[in-house]
Write a structure and sequence with these properties.
Layout lengths: L1 H11 L34 E2 L5 H9 L6 H12 L12 H10 E2 L4 E7 L6 E6 L5 E9 L2 E5 L3 E3 L14 E4 L2 H15 L3 E6 L9 H12 L11 E5 L3 H7 L7 E5 L5 H7 L8 H15 L3 E7 L7 H11 L4 E7 L13 H13 L3 E4 L16 H4 L4 H11 L1
Parallel strand pairs: 1-2, 6-9, 9-10, 10-11, 11-12, 12-13, 13-14
Antiparallel strand pairs: 3-4, 4-5, 5-6, 7-8
The structure holds S-adenosyl-L-homocysteine.
S-adenosyl-L-homocysteine binds next to strand 10 and strand 12.
């Protein structure tokens, strides 16, 4: 019963993130609200505080006659993981009420948490304020906790080996929805998150502006303060967006999902390769490495009989030779109904040896959370159905 009423409420709130205001006096802080004329909390007139940078919070609070240090307080509370504006106890009750009349805290709800018995990797299913559900994975590495976050509900890219592709695209995540995956996972773990990889559901560079704002939010010294060098953005190779990123002066690690040594193999795997050839992608990556002065990672899912021959390895080595890069070989994860199977360990080791022989640093990805299908891109179809709010409730129930 309770679940049902929540769901209805969530459906009612569905439009909250999409509101465009014509009469906004504070357009610069998020173009979603009209403060002065509509200080009501009717649906769609409030702004999600999770989406705002401190300078935007300052504008919001100054517009309410508050001093600017209030913005720092609100931002710090958000990053501490409070779930309600009323938990911001150094704000007066009156201010909290005023804030609630124009804004809300769009927190994610944990609908499921799976913990690997093998290595402690945690997979969260988070419900967004509008009822959609996304995945996030928390992994322990030698150097600390790393979180793999989603950037969209679903994905438009349609990579043949990827489980997310089957469910189609629903919408972009907002900056705050990405931030809250990090905050919520960190709060649950009770420890600082050291690294972020944007390798969950979605194509981050297809949600460029929101991802960029997320990077600024999560890097902010008054917030989680996670260094750009500890953040990886993974892309299927959207060339114009890579070139744009190269101009941002944000030293994140760029990871490109290459998966093939030539366009004909890549076209079998990734529809996007009909738009951007490997040569164009590599050209953009070279510009990125020159501008940002960081090496690019190439992801290569090794698939038996498709892209794992020694010829393929030599061809790839030829393409990447001399580039400032690193190759990460991933044993492809089998997905339900999927036609692709992983190569055996020996084949991968031989593939790696060819690349290393050409002077290209290569690793074989360690697999974490296998018992909870935690690997990025390894979403079970039953989980995918959660992304559709109409089917989500049934899917959860049928698993219980
Ligand atoms: N859209 C982005 C990020 C999300 S996918 C991208 O394409 O990079 C994250 C990574 O998981 C990508 O390298 C993707 O190619 C890989 N991936 C997806 N499905 C996979 C599977 N079944 N096995 C192995 N890797 C997979």
């Amino acid at each position: 019963m309770e679940g049902k009423s929540n769901l209805n409420e969530n459906r009612m709130n569905q439009n909250e993130n999409r509101i465009q205001s014509n009469d906004s006096k504070i357009n610069s802080i998020g173009n979603e609200i009209a403060l002065d004329d509509n200080r009501t909390n009717s649906n769609g007139r409030r702004i999600n505080l999770m989406d705002l940078l401190p300078e935007e919070l300052k504008e919001l609070l100054e517009g309410m006659g508050q001093q600017k240090y209030r913005a720092t307080q609100v931002f710090q509370w958000i990053n501490k993981g409070v779930t309600d504006i009323d938990q911001m106890t150094n704000l007066s009750k009156a201010l909290r009420e005023e804030l609630k009349s124009v804004a809300y805290l769009g927190k994610l709800k944990t609908v499921r948490k799976l913990v690997s018995k093998i290595d402690g990797t945690v997979k969260y299913l988070f419900q967004l304020p509008d009822g959609n559900v996304i995945e996030c994975v928390l992994m322990e590495y030698r150097h600390g906790l790393s979180v793999c976050i989603s950037s969209q509900v679903g994905c438009k890219m349609g990579c043949r080996f990827c489980a997310s592709a089957g469910a189609g695209f629903v919408r972009n995540l907002t900056p705050g929805e990405m931030l809250d995956q990090v905050i919520s996972a960190g709060t649950d773990a009770g420890r600082r998150i050291g690294n972020i990889v944007i390798m969950g559901i979605g194509e981050p560079l297809d949600n460029y502006d929101n991802v960029l704002k997320f990077l600024r939010l999560v890097n902010h010294p008054q917030g989680l303060n996670i260094g750009y060098r500890h953040i990886t953005v993974s892309t299927c190779g959207l060339v114009p967006a890579i070139l744009r990123l190269a101009k941002e002066n944000i030293p994140i690690t760029l990871s490109v999902s290459l998966h093939a040594p030539n366009d004909s193999i890549r076209e079998r795997l990734m529809p996007i390769s009909r738009k951007y050839s490997i040569d164009k992608i590599l050209e953009a990556c070279k510009i990125y490495t020159v501008e940002i002065k960081r090496r690019v990672t190439f992801e290569y899912a090794v698939i038996s009989g498709v892209n794992d021959s020694m010829d393929n390895a030599w061809e790839l080595a030829g393409k990447l030779k001399g580039m400032l890069c690193h190759v990460n070989l991933i044993p492809v994860n089998h997905i339900e109904d999927g036609e692709f199977t992983r190569s055996d360990r020996q084949t991968m080791e031989r593939f790696k040896a060819v690349l290393e022989g050409a002077g290209i640093e290569t690793t074989i990805r360690r697999e974490l959370g296998q018992d909870i299908s935690a690997a990025c891109g390894q979403l079970r179809r039953s989980v995918i159905t959660y992304t559709d709010p109409r089917r989500w409730e049934d899917a959860v129930r049928s698993e219980e």
